[in-house]
Amino acid sequence: MKILAIDTSAKKLVVAARNDDRVFACCEDCAMQHSVRLMGEIDRALAEVSLTVAACDFIVCAVGPGSFTGIRIGIATAKGLCFAADKNALAVTSLEAIAYAEKDGTKIALVDAGHGHVYAQGFGGCDLAAGFYSIEEVLSARDASGAVLLSSEEVEGVETKRVDVAAGLLRAAEELSCRVGPSAGLAAVYLRKSNAEEGR
């Protein structure tokens, strides 16, 4: 499999490239400077595995939930690369990327949404639907299902197991490849209104 995967939905910038058995990934806190760093990291990742966008089978893009601006940067970049190289895309939610970083088990993937809330989704036997929840609601779902709480970054107010999102994106690319399609289908997953919208 030959793929490029990007996630700009959180504080950390995640870029991973796979050229069959060669894999390179970077996961760095870029202080929300995704637009400044993204293309350079893509170039570096592709060079590390001797791959070009034109040679990729498809492009993987995390589509949220997470940073509203970060998500748009990632989707726009993925669409641009797909358009230029005539490639298809795979949309993976931020929660799926976190969940797929752990192979087995009952788990709840979390993304910090601030002010005592999270974006969360249950996997592997936990039926918590993807949504915007209070910490208390997530802890109740965890206690009811015996799930492990997973995240890629610190989640205020709750202890989680930290996972490697780059590994999750690459594993999701294998497991969810049936969803690959035209890049026009890449669409942001927000799960709630932005602060500006809520303030109107």
| 3D shape | globular
> What is the count of β-strands?
10
What does the average pLDDT come to? 94
Report the sheet-strand fraction.
25-35%
CATH architecture of the largest domain: 2-Layer Sandwich
Task: Output the strand order for the largest sheet.
Answer: 3-2-1-4-5
Most strands sheet: 5 strands, mixed
CATH fold title of the largest domain: Nucleotidyltransferase, domain 5
Tell me the number of helical segments per DSSP (H or I, 4 or more residues long).
Answer: 6
Share of helical residues: 25-40%
The oligomeric status of these chains comes to: single chain
What's this, in brief?
This protein is an alpha/beta fold. The protein is built from six helices and ten strands, in the order βββαβαβαβββαββαα.
3D structure, described in words:
This protein has two domains: about 1-95 and about 165-195, Nucleotidyltransferase, domain 5 (2-Layer Sandwich), CATH 3.30.420; about 100-160, no CATH class. It has six helices and ten strands, in the order βββαβαβαβββαββαα. The chain has helices at about 35-50, 70-85, 95-100, 135-145, 165-175, 195-200; strands spanning about 1-5, 10-20, 20-30, 60, 90, 105-115, 115-125, 130-135, 150, 160. The strands form two sheets. The chain has a five-stranded mixed beta sheet with strand order 3-2-1-4-5, sandwiched between helices. Strands 8-7-6-9-10 form a five-stranded mixed beta sheet. Strand 2 and strand 3 (about 20-30) form a beta hairpin. Helix 1 packs across helix 2 (about 70-85). The mean pLDDT is about 95.
